[in-house]
User: Fold this.
Amino acid sequence: MKLSNKSILLMILCLSARRAAAFTSHTPKFTRTFQLKSTAETTELEQKVAKLFSKEKGSPRLRFAPSPTGSLHVGGARTALYNWLLAQQAKLDNEGKIAGKPPGFVLRVEDTDVARSTKESEASVMADLKWLGLNWEEGPDMESDCAPYRQSERMNTGMYETIAEYLIEQDKAYKCFCTPEELEELKAIQEREGASTRSAGPWRNASPEQVEQALAEGKPYTVRFKTPDGSRVIIEDAVRGTVAWDASGTIGDFILLRSSGMPVYNFCVAVDDANMGISTVIRAEEHLTNTLRQVLILDALGAPRPQYAHCSLILGQDKQKLSKRHGATSCTQFKDEGYLPD
Assistant:
C-alpha cells in the first residue's frame, strides 16, 4: 500500500468502526479456567496463584500496551484505535448483561526495558491517545481492581516471582544454573552432533538434591519454561487464520526470569493478560512470534487464551515498514503540523 506522508494519520484514524467490528464474531466471552483442587489438597502457592486468576466470568476486554520508549507511532495509533473501537462496541452490546468486570479498553504500560523507558515518553503517549479521543476505562492514572498498570510497578508486587515459583512446583519450569560459557559450550556440542540447538540444558531434569546444592553454593540461576517435548501450538488468528508452530523445535526452553530476578517481556505479557481478563489481543504482525511463548505460558497456568488478531504493518511508498526516513510518523509530529485528531 502506497501512502503519501501527510495522509497517513488521517487515513488510519478515520477507519470505519465496521473494520474493528469484524473481530466481534471472534471475541469469546471471557471465562477463567484456573481450577483448584479441594483446599486440603492445595498448597499455599497454588492458592496464591488462584487468587490472581480467580474471577470466573467477565466481559470482552481489550488492551493497548505501549512501551514508553518514544512517541506514539501511527502504527501504534492504529492498534489503539482497533482495540478502542471493539471495546466500545462490547460496552454497548454487553451493558448490564454480564456480571463481573465490565467490558472496556485497558491501557497498560510495558516498561520493563528500564534502559529505554522514560516517564516523558509515557506522558507523551498518554497525551496523544487523549488527543485522539481514545480514552481508557482502566490505566496507570487511575485506581482499579487490576492496578497497578505499569509492569515495573507490577514487578514490585511479587506477582511474576509467585507465578514462576508455581510453575516450578508444577514441573512446568525449572531453575537453570548454567553459566553463559556453559551454554555456549552446550550449543557448540549440539552443533557438532547435529542436534537441535534449541534442546534443553542439563538442569531441565536435575534432581531436587542437585538444585538444593547449587542454591547452597550461591550459584546464580535463571528460571526457564519447560517446553513440552514434541509440543505443537495452534491458534486461530482472526486476521491470519490458522497459525501453527513446532514449539519444542522452534524455541526450546525459554527464560521466564533472568538471573537478576527481572521477568522477561513475554512472561509479563502472558501473566498480565490473564490477570486483567483480556479477552482479545489486536496488535501488529511483528508480535506474532511472541504469541507462541505467551500461549505456552497461558496453557501451563490453565488460563484461557485471548482471541488474537495480528494486523499487517503500515508501509511507506517503498513498501518498507514506515519509519522516520519516510517523514512524519508520530502523532505528535502530525499534531504539530496542524492536523486535527478527527
Q: What stands out?
A: The longest helix spans residues 74-94. The chain is about 35% helix and 15% strand. The radius of gyration is 22 Å. The chain has a mean pLDDT of 83.
